[in-house]
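Exercise 7.
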Amino acid sequence: MRVALAALIALTIGPGTHAAEPTDAMSKRVAACTACHGKEGRATNDGYFPRIAGKPAGYLYNQLVNFREGRRSYTPMTYLIDNLSDAYLMEIARHFASLELPYPPPQTRTAAPELLERGRRLALHGDEAREIPACVQCHGKALTGMQPSVPGLLGLPRDYVNGQLGAWKTQQRRTVAPDCMATIAGRLNAADVEAISAWLSAQPVPVPANPVPMTNAKLPLPCGSVAR
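Solution. The predicted structure, written as tokens, is:
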């Protein structure tokens, strides 16, 4: 309990300080984040805490704001950041976005070949008949994300991807309108969600895994959370 309290204090002291800090100083301040998201935000073996290291700063910032404003619901997250300013949340986002760290090997989960093939088709090609765009249309050809606010989909736990798609389907996870992911998730059935999460979590992460620049290509759906 003392360790958790110290981590919380480190995160919340000085939220009005907006000057850039040395990485080691900021690492101590975000100890409350890494307690769940793993050392340096690399994620842990728990399948429900995602990697945050190396994600686009705009995406991380948007998620922190969504937790603070109730569009995403997880009590410990809301408790930690409820009183932090926009500027301080951006400091946290930029800190984790700046960390270029190796990814672990893909999860070794058993999955039927036909399930993986279904996930591959949806991720790379979508389903035009059901108006489901391919994941690569927004998350980049290598699925490593696009700057400044579209996350990569590789290197995430299968349970996390499955849970987040389910949260969008049930409107437990939301973002600013128009909420493109809620629309897409609403068109997926349970087998689609299982297939996508299984295939994504089975893929190796390319090196380098940096998010690519946002292209001028038109996105398949309007997305309020995507800045250009």
